[in-house]
Design a protein that fits this description.
- Chains A, B: Pathway: Amino-acid biosynthesis; L-methionine biosynthesis via de novo pathway; L-homoserine from L-aspartate: step 3/3; Amino-acid biosynthesis; L-threonine biosynthesis; L-threonine from L-aspartate: step 3/5.
- The structure is a homodimer.
- The first copy, chain A, folds into 2 domains: about 1-145 and about 300-315, Rossmann fold (3-Layer(aba) Sandwich), CATH 3.40.50.720; about 160-295, Dihydrodipicolinate Reductase, domain 2.
- Helices cover about 40% and strands about 25% of the residues of chain A.
- Chain A has 11 helices and 14 strands.
- In chain A, strands 1, 2, 3, 4, 5, 6, 7 and 8 form an 8-stranded mixed beta sheet that branches. The first copy, chain A, has a 6-stranded mixed beta sheet with strand order 10-12-11-9-13-14, covered by helices on one side.
- The longest helix of chain A has 18 residues, at about 115-135.
- Chain A is globular.
- The mean pLDDT of chain A is about 95.
- Strand 14 of chain A pairs antiparallel with strand 14 of chain B.
Chain lengths: ~325, ~325
């Protein structure tokens, strides 16, 4: 049995779902996960505490600094790594600048597990290099399609394949708006409905203008080709008029990514609805592979993070 | 760069496609594969030879013992391991009794990669145990859905999930017959057509009576639950009268497997045709996950074997 100490950074929906899944799976395939610290914007709880209690306080009071029974520290991200010295840093925040924290972690031989897209999309080469030097690992299953394991599939399987093309629907908020438009609403009406239901990101442009899908496409390009794309294109859904069978589709091929609305054939596996994402992966030997699953939600995302923690604990190699 | 020596056991369609893929990928993710020996029913070629030349001789003369330029050995399987001393034994034969060879390999710390179903279906517990003792590994991606990575998905991902149910179409020959019946043929006519096109196994009962799909379901049960099923059911397609939307479906849940013809809904992802296989995996957090891809063919199967060789070379952990 192997015990690993994890620091959870960010304690929103995903972080809290992760704490649930960890407590439901005290030991999995010989790995025991000990939550050593939890950090939100208000501070860090560290040491001997009950993660489910911290979750409850967070849900009731909105911040973990409201915890009465435990000391709450005000670490800077760098101090968090150096003081707490976890085995694994788990970033389930949406902090754009988290790359600098991963750098510190990897240099200290702390593996990084993350569901946070920009740091991977922008700095994967640097992170791989640091991980290689320190024999730590970087795992990021839930950055694309949440816990539906497209990263594991591309990164650890298909090792003899040339990936010719990936076509994927990776953003459920635009699917929501487009399917509402299919049933007769205008873009504006559908947009307002999505907003009122909490379907959109805080900055709705990230969904509507394809920024979220673009980060994801970039990450897929990294794992498929080991390099960043040279040519990129990003068109959101604001200009869609006839939404019939249209989805916001990311296309990835060697050197190129594009995100734009595409009209799909009636029987296309990409014609998903609800929170489902789907990807078609075309390779030289396998032809067409389809993976479809939920692409968001607290437990769905936390599930991928959980698998990554176990992989980090078992020192899973990262071929790509 | 890490070089691994592999012994290929069996040199039919899959073995020959594997030799092609290896020669097209001389080095992948830091792993170089050296084909150290190739064995067919006629003998073993070992040492310094050109695998593509052996392939050509096999295709022209039907046996590798026809090779003029190289010595051909008559090793017993056990001697093969002890004499050649490969790093990895690659079984792409259809030898039912291969388990005894795997035992010898694992005891000698030789990892096993196989596309051969019965030894895994019948002896997975014993093989895992031996692998654990010797720190070698057992990899078997291509036993189910060929190179479409359902084994990698279940074995190395979804580690925090409870697998509630798997529903899958895992045998393309029965799909061929059933789709022919859907377009008006009788079972007998469709069966004869399949036979004449070479779609069926040498012993057609393995397809028609669900034996092939049953082995695969059993392997899925092993990787989903770590134990063999207690309750099993197997019904072939001989008695199907109305084939409309019917496929031979394997169902796997904790303690139970069944293989039988099922009428599917019009829009079911399991309603595949041609060589496609498909699986729906239901879990507690992810809901429904769909994986669809080709389930057979030389290169498709060899691709999964290739990935497994790389995993064995990198000492990939096997959580399940």
């Amino acid at each position: 049995m192997k015990e690993v100490k994890v620091s959870i950074f960010g304690f929103g929906t995903v972080g809290r779902a992760l704490v649930e899944i960890v407590s439901e799976n005290p030991e999995v395939v010989g790995v025991k996960i000990k939550v050593e610290s939890i950090t939100d914007r208000s501070g860090t709880v560290w040491g001997d505490f009950d993660p489910l209690e911290v979750k409850e306080v967070k849900e009731n009071a909105g911040r973990i600094s409201a915890l009465g029974d435990y000391e709450v520290y005000s670490f800077k991200p760098k101090e968090l790594i150096e003081e707490v010295k976890p085995d694994i840093l788990v970033d389930v925040s949406s902090w754009d600048g988290a790359f600098s924290m991963y750098e510190v972690a990897l240099k200290e031989r702390v593996s990084v597990v993350t569901s946070n897209k920009p740091p991977i999309a922008e700095h994967y080469d640097k992170l791989r290099e640091l991980a290689e030097e320190s024999k730590a690992g970087v795992y990021f299953e839930s950055t694309v399609m949440a816990g539906t394991p497209i990263i594991g599939l591309l990164r650890e399987n298909l090792l003899g394949e040339n990936i010719e093309e990936i076509l994927a629907v990776l953003n459920a908020s635009t699917t929501f708006i487009l399917t509402r438009m299919e049933s007769g609403k205008s873009f504006e009406e559908a947009f307002e409905e999505a907003k009122s239901l909490g379907v959109l990101e805080e900055d709705p442009s990230k969904d509507i203008d394809g920024i979220d899908a673009f980060y994801k496409a970039k990450i897929l390009h990294w794992v498929a080709y080991g390099e960043p794309p040279e040519k990129t294109e990003r068109v959101g859904i604001r200009e869609v008029e006839d939404a019939k069978n249209v989805r916001l589709v990311a296309r990835v091929s060697k050197g190129e990514i594009s995100v734009k609305p595409r009209k799909l054939e009636e029987n296309s596996p990409l014609l998903v609805s609800g929170v489902y994402n789907a990807a078609i992966i075309r390779t030289n030997n396998l032809g067409e592979l389809v993976l479809k699953g939920k692409g968001g939600g607290g437990r769905v995302t936390a599930s991928g993070v959980f698998t990554d923690i176990v992989k980090a604990a078992l020192k899973f190699p990262s071929p790509r």
